[in-house]
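Sat 14:20. Reprocessing the chain from the morning session after the first attempt stalled halfway. Input below, unchanged.
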Amino acid sequence: QVQVEEFGGRLVQIGDSLRLSCEASGRTANNNVLGWFRQAPGKERELVAAVSSGGTTYHVESVKGRFTVFRGTAKNTAHLQMNSLKPEDTAVYYCAFRSGVTSLRSGYEYWGQGTQVTVSS
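Finished this time. Tokens:
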């Protein structure tokens, strides 16, 4: 079993920066991927960014140039650095974990509870 926890969400203003953090613990495979998803009210959950244990990354087109995902120094941690935040970035952000690195965009097995990010105008 793997436990996933994310934190760092809060209310910010347009143009602000925010960093979300995620940690996976328990029976984690050495080769893995940590992904960041978000779900806004009335919308489907979408993959925002992901990073493999080897450092390979994926960012959805809408956040390229503003968001950066990277691995932390501690094992099985990842961060999502969000800059130039917009109201449309308002959502609950979830961290998810998958074993293996065959895909950064699917196959996630374990999920955190989510952390709310609100960008106010």
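The mean pLDDT is 96.
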